[in-house]
TrEMBL record:
The keyword Membrane applies. Keywords: ATP-binding, Hydrolase, Membrane, Nucleotide-binding, Transmembrane, Transmembrane helix, Transport. It comes from Dactylosporangium salmoneum. Residues 595-822 form the ABC transporter domain. Pfam families: ABC_tran, Peptidase_S15, PepX_C. This is CocE/NonD family hydrolase. The chain crosses the membrane at residues 12-32, 552-575. PROSITE patterns: ABC_TRANSPORTER_1, ABC_TRANSPORTER_2, TAT. It comes from the Bacteria. Coiled coil: none annotated. Belongs to the ABC transporter superfamily. The keyword Phosphoprotein does not apply. One of its GO terms (molecular function) is hydrolase activity.
Amino acid sequence: MRVRLPSLSRRQIISGAVALVLVVGLVGWASAPKPKSFRTTDQMITVKTGPDDGSEVTLDTTLYLPKSAGAGDPVPAVLLAHGFGGTKQSVRSDAERFADQGYAVLTWTAQGFGRSTGEIHLDSPDWEVKDAQRLIDWLAARPEIRKDGNDPKVAAVGGSYGGALSLLLAAQDARVDAIVPMITWNDLVNVFLPGGVFKKQWAGEFFGSSENPANPQCGRFAEDICKAYLDIATTGRSTPATEALLRKSSPSQVLDRIKAPTLLIQGQVDTLFPLSEGDANARGIAANGTPVRVAWYTGGHDGGSGPQSEVDRLRQLSDQWLGHYLKGDGATPPTSFTYSRVSGLNAQGRGLVTAASSVDAYPGLNNVGAAVTLQGPDQRIASPPDGNPAGISSLPIAGLSGLLGAAGAGGITQEIPGQHADFVSTPVGAALDVAGAPKVRLRVASPTGEATLFVKLYDVPAKGEPSVPDGLIAPIHLTGLPKNIGDAVPVTVTLPAVVHRFEAGSRVRVTVATADTGYWSPTEPVVYTVALDGSVDLPAIAGTPLANPDIVWRYVLAGLLAAIALGLAVVLVLARRRARRIDRSVDAELVDTPLVVRGLRKEYKDFVAVARVDFTVRRGQVVGLLGPNGAGKTTSLRVLMGLTRPTAGEILVFGHRLLPGAPVLSRVGALVEGPGFLPHLTGAQNLELYWKATGRPAEDAHFEEAYEIAGLGSAVNRRVRTYSHGMRQRLAIAQAMLGLPELLVLDEPTDGLDPPQIAEMRKVLRRYATGGRAVLVSSHLLAEVEQTCTDVVVMHRGEVVAAGPVDEIVGESPSVQLDVSDVDAAEKVLQELTGVRSVAWSGGRGLVVDIDGAPRAEVVAALVKAGVGIDRIAPRRRLEDAFLSLVGGDTKASGERP
C-alpha cells in the first residue's frame, strides 16, 4: 500500500513556515563570517641582548592591534609566547581571540627558531628573557598602548617554553602586570633528571627538534646547552656545572621575585612537565603573598588541549584573570582551585567527556586520602644491560602523544617478564577518586649498593586491561643499599600526581620495574631484590562540581533550541494525527513466523530502488538474499531494520507490522551498516557499552553464548584496535547475537574475510539457526550462500525473480560450461541460437551458457560450423549457474569480461 501524508491546514503551514524561518535565520546569523575587529602588522625587530647587551638578534614579530586603539583610546597589551620548536604562527588563533577582546597582542618567534636569528638558550634570563624585556620597551614607545606613566600595562601569556618565559620575565621585569603560564616547568634539573634518572627520550625530543646544516650535532642550540645535553646523554648523569646551567633557566630560582598575579595552568596528562612542576611554582609564588590561582586540566604534552569543554573552561579563567588584573574590569578573581576528571566517552565516539570540580583553596599534592593495603612477597628482578629490553609506560614523543590522545598514555603500557615486581590490593569495595601524589614505601637490596628503578601505579579493572593513569611513573636512583633485603631500610617514594577514579571492583597495583624506554638505565646487568613496606597512600580532594563555562554560544543555542522546539511542536501534532491512521493490528496466523515481506516498494526522487519484493523467512531457515549490484538487496534490508521508510508494502515480524520503536524489534538482531567500535576499548567493553545503550535489562544479554557462537575466545579481552578485519566482523556478529534474537539479519557478514574465516562464519550461521531461530543474510559470494543457506531469494532490478530451497533453485539451472578456442566468436554464435537464454564469461576461455530449449548437440554443431574449437563441455548445476540464468545478461555480481 502507498503511504499518504496527511493534508495540512493553513494554520499548520504558517506555523511550520515561521519555525523554519526562525531556524534558518539563527543558523545563518551564527555561521555568518564576522569582520575582524583588529589589524595586524608584521615586523622584524632587532634587539640588544646577551649578558652585557653586547649582542643583537632580530625577532620575527606580529602586532595584533584593535582597530579602535589609538593615542586617544590606548589598550593594554599581551605578550604571547609560543612553545618549544614553534613560531609566532603557533599562537595565531589565541592572539586573534585576545585581540577581539580589545588587547594589543604581540607575538614573536623566539631566537633560534623560524626566521628569527640567534641561538637557543632554553629561556635564559640573559637571552630569551632579555629579548622579551626589549619587546616591552618597544610596546611602551607606542601611543596605542595603555600606560601608568611610562609603565605599559602588559601581561605575559604562554604555554610550555612560553610559560617558563612568562614566569622568568615577571621575575626579571616589574612592568609585567599579570601572567598566565601554562604546562611549564619549575626546575629543569627535576624535569630531565627526576629522581636522579635521565629522561632521555623527552630530552632527545627537545634536542632533536633543532636543525642547522652548519652544525648538525648542535643545531641552533647555544654551545653551552649543546655540551650539557651531550654530556648527560652520554653518561646518564649530571655534573654540578650542568645543573647550574639548567637551573639558570628555571623559575625555581626566582619565584620569590614574582609580584605579578599568576594564573597557573598545568596538564594532568603530561610526562614532560607533570603536576609537581606546577605545584612547586604555585607554592613558591604564593609564599610571598602574590595572588595565585591554580587550574589542572585533562591534557598536557601527552594529552593535547583536551575536550572542548576543557578549552572553554581554561579560556574563561584566563579571560577573567586578565580582565581584572590587566584591564581593571570585574571583581577580583577567586584563588579557588579547579581540576577535571575523565568521566566517560562521548556517545558519538568523538573523544572523552570530562567533569570539572572546584575547591576553595589550592590544597597541593599531599592530600589526605585512603591507605590501600598491597600484597606480594619479596621479589628478585633483573636490570638488563644498558636498559635493553625496556618496559613501556608512555610514548613521550611530541606529535605521537597527540595522536594517542588523552587516554593513550595510559593504554600502551608493557612490562618485561622478570624485570618487574608487582604488589596488588584486593578489589576495592567502593569507587576511589584520587587527586594528588600517591606515596608508597619500598625496601630495596642491590649487590652494587645502588639501584635505578621505575615505580608505577596501576589501575587493574575487574574487566579490561591494567593501565598506568596518564602514563606517569616515578624514576628513582637509590644509593647506599644493602646486599640483603633483610637489612634494607624503607624508602618513601612519591609517585606523580594524578586525577583518577578506581572503580569499585578494581585492584590497585604498584609495579617496580628496572628499565623504561623513556629513561636512561645502567649499562651493567644486575639483579635487585624489592619488597613492599605496608600500603599505598592515595590522596583525594572533595571538590564541588562545576558547570561548563558561560559562553555566548549558550544563548545562541538556547534561541536555536526554542525555534526547533516550536517546529517540533508542529511536527508532533502532525505525527499524532498520522499515528492514529497507522495499522497496529497483529496477524494471528503469522505470530510464529519470523519475517514476512509483502509488496515492498521503495522509491527515491529520481529512481525506483525496490519495485516489488515478497518473501518469507521461517524458523530454522538460513535464507540468502542474492542479486547483482543495484538489485535492491541493501535497500530492502535498510527498510527491514527501520533505517528508511518504505514507499509502499508491509513487513511483518512475528505477525507484528514493522513500526519504529516497536517492542517486537527486541526479537531481531542485525548487522546492516557495518561494524563500528571504539578502538581503545576491549571487545567485551564495546559490547557491554552497546547493551547498556539499548536500555534492556542486563540479564537479557547472553554475552558468553554470543562469544562462543561467534568464536571470539579470549580475544574479547583485547582492545579492538588490535583486531584484524575478520575479528571485527566476528565482534559485530556477536553484538547482533547478544540478546539471542529469534531473527538475525546480516548484510555481507563475510566482507573482507579470508577463506578460513569465511568457512568459520559459515559454521557460525548454521549453529545459530538451530533451536527455532532464523537468519537472513545478504551476500555476493554465491558459493558460500550455496554451502551455508537452506533457502535463497534472488532479486533483480528491484524485484524477486526466484525464491525457494537452494536445491530447487540449483536444480532448475539448465546451464553448461564450455571451454572454447575463441570466446568472442563463440559468444556471438551462441547469442544468435534459438533457445539459448544467456551467455556469460566465466574467466579465461570459459563460458557459462543457459541452453534452456536448445539441444546440446545443436550448440556444439553451431560452434563447430563457425570454426570455433571446443575443448570441454560439461553440465553446470551450481547456484552460480542458476543465478546467471535468472538475472540474464546482467553479470555485475559475478564479474564481467574486460
